[in-house]
Amino acid sequence: MGELWVVGEPGADGGLARLSAEVATLARDLGAQGGRRVAGVVVAAEPEMIATELARYLPTILAIAEPAAVEHAWSAIAAARVAGLLEEHASEPPDVILVGAGSDGRDFAGALSALTGLGVLTSATAVAWTDSGPAVEMSPFGGKLLTTCGFTGGRGIVTVRPSVADAVPGDTTGVVETRQASGPALPPVRVIERTSEAGAAAPIEEAKIIVAGGRGVGGPDGFGLVGELASELDGAVGATRAAVDSGWIGYSQQIGQTGKIVKPDLYLALGISGAIQHKVGMQTAGSIVAVNRDPDAPIAEFADLLVVGDLFEVGAALLEQLRARSG
Amino acid sequence: MHIVVLVKPVPDPASGGERLGADGRLDRASAPAVVNGNCEYALEAALKLAAASEGSEVTLLSMAPASAPETLRKALAMGATRGIHVTDPVLAGTCAVSTARVLAAALKPLTFDLVLAGVDTSDGLGGTVPAAVAAHLGLPLLSYASRIEPDEAAGTVRVRRISATGYDLLEAPMPAVISCTQALGEPRYPSLKGIMAARSKEIATRSLADLGIDPSTVGGAVATTTLIDSRTPPARGATEVVRGSPAEGAARIVEFLAQRRII
Amino acid sequence: MVLASPASARPMLRSAAVISSSQAHGPYQLSEEQRLLRDAVRELADERVAPRAADIDRTGEFPEDLRRLLATQDILALPFPEEHGGLGGELLSVCLAVEQLSRACATTGLILAAHELGALPLLLAGTPEQRARWFPRLASGEWLIAFALTEAEAGSDVAAARTRAVRDGDQYVISGSKRFITHGSVADLVTVFAVTDPEAPRHGRLSCFVVEVPTEGFSVPRVEHKMGIRGSPTAELAFDNVCVPVANRVGDEGDGFGIAMRTFERSRPGIAAQAVGIAQGALEVASRYATERRQFGQRIGDFQMVAAMLADMDASTEAARQLLYKACVEIDSGAPDAGRWSAMCKLVAGDAAMRVTTDAVQVLGGYGYIDDFPVERMMRDAKITQIYEGTQQIQRLVIARALLGKDRAPLG
Fold this sequence. Notes:
The complex is a heterotrimer. Chain A is α/β, with parallel strands linked by helices. Chain A has helices at 18-34, 48-54, 74-88, 103-116, 140-143, 223-232, 241-245, 276-282, 311-325, and strands at residues 4-8, 38-44, 60-65, 96-100, 119-124, 126-130, 133-138, 146-151, 156-160, 175-179, 190-196, 209-213, 236-239, 266-270, 287-292, 305-308. In chain A, strands 5-9-4-1-2-3-10 form a seven-stranded parallel β-sheet, with helices on both faces. Chain A is elongated and about 65 Å long. By secondary structure, chain B is of the alpha/beta class. Chain B has helices at 37-51, 68-78, 96-107, 129-137, 192-198, 208-211, 246-259, and strands at residues 2-6, 9-11, 33-35, 57-63, 82-86, 114-118, 141-151, 156-162, 166-173, 176-180, 203-206, 225-231, 240-242. In chain B, a hairpin with a 3-residue loop joins strand 8 (156-162) and strand 9. The radius of gyration of chain B is 22 Å and the shape is globular. By secondary structure, chain C is an alpha+beta fold. In chain C, helix 2 (32-59) runs parallel beside helix 4 (91-104). Chain C is globular. Chains in contact: A-B, B-C. Chains A and B meet through helix 3, helix 4, strand 5, helix 5 and strand 8 of A and helix 3, helix 4, strand 7, strand 8 and strand 9 of B. Strand 8 of chain A pairs antiparallel with strand 12 of chain B, so a sheet runs across the interface.
């Protein structure tokens, strides 16, 4: 019976990406459900640190050192090396290869599927085990539908959405096995430099509370209030495409069909109409609270609580009351 | 420069009518077809690059049902030079893996500097096709581009790739595959002259035989993935609407958050 | 006053049935090109023009941004021949665009309609040299052209104009003033009608000139504050010995009146299109409101009195639209009674727009009277379509003249 492999991605700080830890936890539980072994795979210039971190979650880690990864795009390198690894395991190939559904993960999944012919199920919100292999839950059409899909051959690649599982270390620390790079390479893409933009703290997908501003915020100054509320609630600042397109806030804060998909415990939407393109980015949040002048805005249909009013007045009052509360 | 843009007709997301058919595949008749939003951004980027480089051309490439040319007209009206339409009834229900293989086969005989594609499509959201196409062709992939700067003299291209904390600057030799984000800039409306001119622009058709692809290796019958079940998500529950003074509204929010143990 | 063009004096003793059958010209159908055009302008209007409409009305500022948008989208190229960078100039195509724009904002629809109006004298009577000189930049939208005929003392009575153009060697010297000139303060070219021969019979006194502005002696003393189409600048123009080369005269001396009348034949449908667009916009707002507003436990659209109003509004608008499209085809194919078609479509559409917008305000009740909803603006915008480019009363004179012919009794 085939194993489950989890491909660990390098995070922004050089360690293991938090999304990979989440995927590893999910895979570990899935493996337990299906009685399958789970292994992690790490491809990096110096894989030890990432592999050690991943070993907190999984019993076995296959670590491949790939010097080119220092200053070349990760996904093509990793896909080629994992393809090589799969060839080595041809007699007993893994049934499922899981990776995070961030941009690197999707690029990785695409390249690997081309190299191996394996199918891909993307943006999974849940994975369960059935007799014929993994059953992957997804939500296409902007969340209007929930589908469960499988692989016709019982084997394939799955990309997993952020915040689907919590990252929970296993009971014991796993063993790291060094493997040699093998197989053909894909054309490398040089990374000349990496730039961090001001205000882009932790990736917004990881935030448990998000305070977001839309067209109603009116300008960059208005985002001051949004930021203060986020601060007070210990959350992150989000924005709709309208706000980003108007230059009021950076693209890394954009939530929606063309930005990030988030699943916080609380999504506080200020001056956001709730149009479908934004809705798909946040509709699975635990609680949705909206402040809007227009009681008929689309967000009224799916928010848990809608306060009809001017977002600056309500926001200022809210800030005051929250601060009074925390003493 | 010659730039090829991968373009996919999808059911119009704005129509709200997207749904699956009885066979579990996307019902393409469920809503009028439009060019996938992200593909329009890729096309806009291509048109801008072409305008900046004398004698450049932009070719659309689409693997789509027979009705696609009507949808591609708008893309031609935006300014693309011509279109290539890969179509065959067998292709219905083709999965992403085979789609990438077919697109790569269509690209292989062409000479180009760049292939641009949207990062994903509104009817699939997979986001794996650009990387798969690049891998099939043995070309570098520069993905999630927010800026594209080719250097024709040097034969290289630089791309700003959106990252979690900002952006990375990538560089690779051309020809290359670039997946495009909306940060590249709003697609233009086709001008009236563009609309009129589009009617006489060529859309060449390619069959599987033209591409040397065995029909038994594509299509719904041999798709790598299959639908097991589908259902509508549970409703969130009624919305509580609060009117009144800002202080009253704020107080209700605080109460709500406390009730749900968020604060 | 007499406005009938020579052509419409012909069907004197024919019965109404013969006059109204459009034998040679047949039914119309929108071509694929026209449908694409209409849909493209509609999309543009919905996404880029509509969000600006309330603001334009509130500030009364000419929407330069939308004028530029119309230019880059080639919409201002519609009236001009292809050889000069235009899109061919079919009347129906221009009207389709004006209608879709006006649905969102009457001021914006007027940008195209007034641009066409100003250019018509050149389109009808310009020399190849004049067309080559001016059309390219008018088609690209870089330049706007305005039509300056009306004066303080010469509104409906066009032939009573007093602005004078005196020949002086190889130029004309123009003095006088014009009133109520659409785009007068933002245009780059002004088509001016001035008296060259005060002694000539009424219809031979005027000549037509194109004045390139700014130019010495030309000024804009005043821009009106209006009830509606508030974003469209309506200006008084003053000409104080403005010199204009002979090469800028359109047609021969004395041709001015005839050129103006032939211009109106083609420009009135543009106003009809504006009116149909305004009506359609109001109808859509009122219909949507009637499905959303609930009183006495049901949608107000289900009350018969409201439903009847909406039905009449829809029928009125559609009737005006169909007459307009048909008129465009008739006029473009050289129908001998083009003047009658032109007057009819403007008459019907203008009255329909006023009625439909007034009823739209009524359907919305109190909400229709406040500017939270656009119908009060649409009602104010609609009124002008019953006034400019020939009042409804003038249109009726034209139609009656076509129907009844001239009195053949001896001149007395």
